[in-house]
Amino acid sequence: MFKRFFAALCVALLGSFVCGDVTSAVEPMPLYVIGTAQLDGGYVPDGTTIQAYCAGYLAGQTTTFTYNGAACFAFDVEGDDPDTETRDGCRPGE
Asked: Given this model, what pLDDT does residue 29 score?
């Protein structure tokens, strides 16, 4: 019994060394933005584009719609994945 347990333990440890780190990266959480849009004291028309930029990167966009008389918008702003070399969203603090 002990020999089987010891052999299984050795195989498991050897497998962990051979396979390396088997963790999956966690995707960055998006920032959900909601609000109203005004220009010169009045609400903007329906279909006005609202965009979020982080260091020149377009991280999210939507268009406005009317709700209860106000020009509203709601959209996700993408978070940057630190495990990739390319920029694909906003970084913490931006």
From this structure: 80
Do residues 80 and 28 make contact, with C-beta atoms less than 8 angstroms apart? yes
Please report whether residue 8 resides in a domain: no
The 8-class DSSP code of residue 69 comes to: T
Domains: count for the chain: 1
Whether 88 is in a domain gets the answer: yes
Q: Which regions in the chain score pLDDT beneath 70? A: 1-25
For 70, the domain range is: 23-94
> Is 77 within 8 Å of 30 (Cβ atoms)?
yes
Which pLDDT belongs to residue 63? 98
64 CB-contact burial (10 Å; exposed 0-12 / middle 13-18 / buried 19+): buried
